[in-house]
Amino acid sequence: MMNSVNMERDQWQMGKTKVFIKAPESLFLLEEVRERKFDGFARTVQKAFRQYRMRKFFVDLKQQASDILYMKKQRRRLTLNRNFVGDYIGFDTNPALRALVGKRERIEFAITAIKYDRRFKPSKRDLLLSSKHVYLIGREKVKKGPEKGKVYEVVKRKLELNQIGKISLSTLQDDFVVLHVPGEYDTVFQTVFKTELLTVLTKKYEAEVGKSLTLDFRDNITVVVKKEGWGGGGTRTLSFTCSGSSDFPIIAPSSKTLKVTIGEGLSKETRTFIMSMYQ
């Protein structure tokens, strides 16, 4: 122990049951080393406990997810037993994204999704979910001035959870999700993490609003679109058809209808395999 702190040999002496230290400063050095060791041990225990608690949280979350889609929607073979992570875009280490949300607002779920506009044109959006809001984050390029050409993250849409009327999905294995917002316009997007999103969103919605979030499963979904310029908003339709054997959708815009064709997935009765947190 004395050698590990590089204490000079003439500063201490070993007795039969005790160690005698010559200078008080040397004793203070040992006390400081002990405190650092204790601090390291405490951090190790805290880290292990946080990992245990997080594993338990995601195991419980997967069980809830299995219940949400059971007998309502076909499941995808490639993602059925995927582990839940929560943050898929590195939000905590991205200062530009963190600056767009409230300082005390904890983001529970973060993904990059494909969002469709009124003409069914796809574009990437970062979707952030907190206990109070849903954020859709896009990128815009500066067109004038000294920063011309530079790209910044901007909030394209911010919804309070109580603004959401319901969520629509098809009964097939596709990844489309529709957020319905009464009195405004709906948001259509596509994400492979839809099951985890629905699980976290329904849980946070019930805690914030005090009632269950309505999930509507149908293969023809009417979408209210955003007004642009002098043009009216109106509605669009998402039409889903099961055909072929492909697990990847064929997407075909046609006038005011987006036709989505995909092969048959796993049965609606399929349950997610929940691995024990002790495994």
From TrEMBL:
One GO cellular-component annotation of the UniProt record comes to:
myosin complex
Keywords noted in UniProt: Actin-binding, Motor protein, Myosin
What Gene Ontology terms describe what this protein does at the molecular function level?
A: actin binding; ATP binding; cytoskeletal motor activity
Phosphoprotein recorded as keyword: no
Record's superkingdom?
Eukaryota
Pfam families, per this entry?
Answer: Myosin_TH1
Is-annotated flag, keyword Metal-binding?
no
Q: Which family does it belong to?
A: Belongs to the TRAFAC class myosin-kinesin ATPase superfamily. Myosin family.
Q: Which PANTHER family match?
A: OS01G0621700 PROTEIN (PTHR34969), TH1 DOMAIN-CONTAINING PROTEIN (PTHR34969:SF1)
Q: What is this protein called?
A: Unconventional myosin-Ie-like isoform X2
